[in-house]
Specification:
Cytidine Deaminase, domain 2, 390 residues, alpha/beta, 34% helix
Length: 390
């Protein structure tokens, strides 16, 4: 295939639109079902790079859930606890390793993953296809599909669901370009892989860096590489638990990602786990209700609507209960695509269980940031490498 004609560009008024190779070569993809759009393809190619690099780095099946050219979640195939199986709504399924990776990537932030684009590092099996079939998403990209798995996906959205196969051996040219306002920009691709040496420059008093933390540092590093800047992410247990993308201020990135990480943790609170929904309430509506339930600024009008969702009006988690529960989350990795210019981000990160910090270093206030990390007993790694992505 020389080119793929798209329905329109970023918006319906931006037509015609297509993707093609400037060197007049064959595209490394096959559209097996559906008709992907312009933003779908942006998500697909960014997400594919992320999961391929995760698989190459950690040798584990990997998955990403993308929305608007940034990941809502990314994960590798670490077995799920019964608690996570329940809050990710997969406790009724038998999950293969690849399906487990996607359950993690999708489940961590189900509001943002609603209508996502999926990227999978391995050939899609029946287990993964069955999981995808029951979630609301726009499409999937993977290196291949088992025949029965493909048939399951072809039935989604009455045959309109986008299924793309990508050649896993495809290697792009070293330079990439884009046109903005009729002017062409060109740069070398950010093709530097993560390596163990990126985590050797530990600048804090605490040098503890167990294997699980190194794995999660790799996940943070690779996730940030394909997240719109400014960006930070919180990672634990082989998956992101909060991604803050596209903010002008780094502290706002941290607050956004930290809030998502806190909600992920609070979804595991016994009160949240025991919420009783009316049987007709579907999963997306349950996701919205849980998110609302966990907010500390719910209005009386919003609470009035709970009688239509829950079998009985639940008691919200108190401020003290929230703090005690969140304080039990430890060992979290915080990754940043550029240096922290102030200590405010470290203070906020500590409130969400951060123990390990990955950032490039290079700020005029590095000493103050390191001092704050030392106060919390954190291990801080300077990678020396900025990861801006636009």
């Amino acid at each position: 295939m020389k080119e793929l004609i798209l329905r329109y560009g970023c918006n319906p008024n931006q037509s015609p639109a297509r993707v093609y190779l400037k060197n007049d070569g064959e595209l490394p993809i096959k559209v097996l079902a559906g008709s992907p759009g312009y933003i779908n393809m942006l998500d697909a190619f960014n997400a594919w790079q992320l999961v391929k690099e995760l698989k190459d780095s950690l040798n584990l099946p990997a998955a990403a859930s993308f929305k608007h050219v940034s990941p809502s979640g990314a994960a590798v195939a670490i077995p799920l606890s019964e608690t996570l199986r329940k809050i990710y709504f997969v406790d009724d399924l038998e999950l293969s390793p690849l399906a487990t990776a996607y359950a993690r990537a999708r489940g961590v932030d189900r509001l943002c993953s609603f209508g996502d684009w999926i990227a999978l590092s391995d050939i899609v099996d029946i287990s993964t296809a069955k999981l995808i079939a029951r979630e609301v998403s726009d499409g999937v990209i993977a290196p291949g599909y088992e025949s029965e798995a493909l048939e399951i996906l072809k039935k989604k959205k009455q045959g309109k669901y986008s299924v793309i196969e990508i050649d896993p051996t495809y290697k792009p040219v070293p330079f990439e370009s884009r046109d903005v306002f009729g002017i062409t920009f060109e740069q070398r691709r950010n093709d530097r892989p993560v390596s163990a040496s990126d985590f050797t420059n530990i600048v804090t008093t605490n040098h503890e860096l167990p294997d699980a933390a190194q794995r999660d540092l790799s996940i943070a590093w690779i996730t940030l590489k394909y997240t719109q800047s400014n960006s930070v992410c919180f990672v634990t247990d082989g998956q992101t638990i909060g991604v803050g993308a596209g903010q002008q201020s780094r502290i706002h990135c941290v607050r956004l990602a930290g809030q998502k990480a806190d909600i992920w943790r609070l979804r595991q609170h016994p009160i949240s786990m025991n919420l009783q929904f009316k049987p007709e309430i579907r999963r997306p509506d349950r996701d919205n209700a849980i998110d609302q339930f966990l907010r500390d600024d719910v209005t009386p009008h919003e609470k009035d609507a709970w009688s239509e969702i829950f079998t009985s009006i639940p008691r919200q988690i108190s401020s003290d209960e929230r703090r005690i529960w969140l304080d039990n989350l430890t060992g979290v990795v915080l990754g940043s695509d550029a240096f922290f210019p102030f200590s405010d981000s470290i203070h906020r990160a500590a409130a969400s269980g951060v123990k390990y910090v990955l950032e490039p270093g290079g700020s005029a206030r590095d000493d103050a940031v390191i001092h704050t990390a030392n106060d919390y007993g954190m291990t801080m790694v300077f990678s020396g490498l900025r990861l801006f992505h636009h």
